[in-house]
Amino acid sequence: MAEAGRKLSLAAWVWVLIAGLAVFELVAHPLIRAAVPSDESWEAASAFVRARYLATDRIVAAPSWADPIVRSRLGDLLSLRAAAPGDPAGIDRVWELGIRGATTRDESPALEKDFDGVRVRMWRVSSDEVLYDFVENIENAEVELAAADGPKACSWTSARPAPGGLGHGPMTPSERFICDPHRPWLWVGATVLQDLELQPRRCIWQHPAGADPVRVTFPDVPLGERLVIRGGIDYQSERQRIHSPVILRVWLDEQLIGELVHHDGDGWSGIDVDTASLDLERAQVRFETTAPDPTARLFCWSASIQSGRRPVVDAPHRLHGGGR
Exposed e or buried b for every residue in 137-169, given b needs 16+ CB within 10 A? Predict the structure, then answer.
């Protein structure tokens, strides 16, 4: 009888637990739904940003996992450079669409308005003028692979793209310089890399071949005040922190003007090179990558010629912040 009583007691507790879960779901469901912004809220917030968007703006999501929602609403406004910047130059304002109190910046915004759960915030950011973007002009470059019997030109080719993904690095674009068909990773072209912090970076893929440099030459580049160079390795390789460094050397009219040595763990980093003192209006710029061991050196870099501080460009009409 005691055993039967224990079984009855256990069965009773199971039913109590089931009933409790059902009650919790009935109570929690309206609260959960209230915490999720409606389609109408997203639409109103997106329309507000769209009406004020300028070509020099950037749009971000907070938290980051809401990015697909923001892209579905405003993706047509986002260039690859704005969505995955190598550096912040050329961006005058940052628009943030955030939910659940998340934000991407600590400072107070210039504008803030709430749309029933979707908060729009805008910051004006100080930005340098971009005179020349090397990523955008990669098609105009000359690419070659150094070898013992002399340099070999890499041909600009339209070929089948590769999607990239886990264990394969970033996407291989359909148009790129192919340096060696037997080494499918030995190409040069524009892609988007996920850096060590899982941030997207639009950049030029220039995987080193080893001690012999891969050379990318831009024959006629306008010079401003500085050459800003950033680079990194795909996070899947860099986070292992077991591979050799990558060396990116930069030459201007056959003069070495900068060297970026990237070690695993550096993340997206770089150097700035002063060009104002060179007293040149235009020059040839060459980028060379090497590595003691090229294994898993999925290296990608971005660079731009920058000059001066631009005044902040406001929207066509004055904006007024809204409530939280």
Answer: ebeebebbbbeeeeeeebebeeeeebebeeeeb
Q: For residue 250, give every residue at least 6 positions away whose Cβ sits within 8 Å of its Cβ, in sequence order, or none.
A: 227, 229, 256, 257, 258, 259, 260, 273, 285, 286, 287, 288, 303
Could you tell me what percent of the chain has a pLDDT over 90?
62
CATH class of 130-309: mainly beta
Q: Label residue 93 exposed, middle or buried (CB < 10 Å: 0-12, 13-18, 19+).
A: buried
Which tens digit of pLDDT belongs to each residue from 83-112?
778 777 888 899 999 999 999 899 999 999
CB half-sphere exposure, 235, CA atoms < 13 A: 13
For 309, the 3-state DSSP assignment is strand
Q: Give the H or E element holding residue 44.
A: helix 39-50
Q: 260 near 270, Cβ under 8 Å?
A: yes
Asked whether the beta carbons of 120 and 46 are under 8 A apart, the reply is no
Domain assignments of the chain as residue spans, ordered by start: 39-127, 130-309
Collect all residues with Cβ–Cβ distance below 8 Å to 179 and sequence separation of at least 6.
143, 144, 145, 152, 154, 186, 187, 188, 209, 214
Reported as a pLDDT band with limits 50, 70 and 90, residue 219 is: very high
Distance CA(45)–CA(40), nearest Å, equals: 9
CB atoms within 10 A of CB 280: 13
- Helices first, then strands: H and E counts in the chain: 5, 18
The crossing angle, in degrees rounded to 10, of helices 67-74 and 39-50 is: 60
Strand partners for 309: 128
Output the pTM of the full model: 0.76
In single-letter form, the type of residue at position 110 comes to A
